[in-house]
Amino acid sequence: MKIAFMRCGFLISIVVISQMMFAQGTGLLINLVLSKQEFLVGEPIFVEISLVNTGNAPIQIRRFYLGFDYFKIVVKDQAGNEYPYGMHRSEVPPDSTASIKLQPHDTISRVVDLLPLLGKGKYQLRDIHTRTFFEPGSYTAQASYVNDKNRIYSIIGLFTVMKPRGRDSKAYEFLVRATELELALKKDRAGAVLDSLIQEFPESAYHILAFIQKFKMYEWSNGQSDQEQGYKAALSLIESYPSSEAADIALTHIMVRADRLMKTPKERKELLIKLVKEHPGTRIEKQAKAGLKKIEGVE
């Protein structure tokens, strides 16, 4: 059964009821939730994808790896044009070591930024939001997942991208300047420009992006001083926005990329305990607790 309606100036046809029944028939439900419905050009477009076991028995599932065809997010513009996945994709699924058991009525979720994955831009610049972005306009996003040879679909999410205006436009100029300096390998100066944005435009939607762009700038560096800069930027984001989806990305950066600073499970555990104590009732508390559970399972 199809349900059609008007939204954001264009017609969308959603296979709502049939998709929900299909998902529930497999015991698995997939959800896609946008962080909001309106974004500025270059602003991160966060979606939270979750799989829910709606049945009464455990289900073996693969983890959320977008590089394989069993998990997809499709973004389309108002004309129905689909944005291709910007990274490398393989049809061969990972082996069983990448699988987990989802218990009855339990949920697994992941936060994804749509821009580096599906926005327009060159492959080598996909993490730089002033070079990879969606043009102003209206868009749809839908996630799908294959389990036990059946593909299930989320309900379609709607979002709009707009040009920055006023002080947001000025903040965006800072981001562009920082990008130019980063690509010229002048990371210290780029970081200083991002720091200025953070200090001068706390009300801007680009404020959170300045933190992200700063720690992403050092993501692949093995130098201790670079990792310290990335660590500080990621931790500052968490402290400023503990309930934001961006906090998930920042915590992942710290746990995975700051290996010269967080050398042992004990050091990681101490940081996670600190985050739990300092940010009760927030999104980062939940993620820190999940991280602690993983560490304690290894110890």
Explain what the structure shows.
This protein is an alpha+beta fold. The protein folds into two domains: 3-162, Immunoglobulin-like (Sandwich); 167-298, Alpha Horseshoe (Serine Threonine Protein Phosphatase 5, Tetratricopeptide repeat), CATH 1.25.40. The protein has nine helices and 13 strands. The strands form four sheets. Strands 4, 7, 8, 11, 12 and 13 form a six-stranded mixed β-sheet that branches. A three-stranded antiparallel β-sheet has the order 3-5-10. A hairpin with a 2-residue loop joins strand 11 and strand 12 (150-153). Helix 3 (167-183) runs antiparallel to helix 4. The relative contact order is 0.11.
Q: In whole angstroms, how far apart are the ends?
A: 50 Å
Number of strands: 13
Rg, nearest Å: 20 Å
Q: So, CATH architecture of the largest domain?
A: Sandwich
List SSEs in N-to-C order.
EEHEEEEEEEEHEEEHHHHHHH
Average predicted confidence as pLDDT: 85
CATH class of the largest domain: Mainly Beta
Shape: globular
Summed up, the domain count is 2
Task: Classify the helix fraction into a percent range.
Answer: 25-40%
What name is given to the CATH topology of the largest domain? Immunoglobulin-like
**Share in β-strands:** 15-25%
What is this structure's SSE topology?
Blueprint lengths: L2 E5 L2 E5 L1 H10 L2 E7 L3 E3 L5 E8 L5 E4 L8 E7 L4 E2 L15 E4 L4 E7 H5 L18 E11 L2 E4 L3 E6 L4 H17 L3 H14 L6 H11 L6 H17 L4 H13 L7 H14 L4 H16 L1
Parallel strand pairs: 4-13
Antiparallel strand pairs: 1-2, 3-5, 5-10, 6-9, 7-8, 7-11, 11-12, 11-13
Helix pairs in contact: 3-4, 4-5, 5-6, 5-7, 6-7, 7-9, 8-9
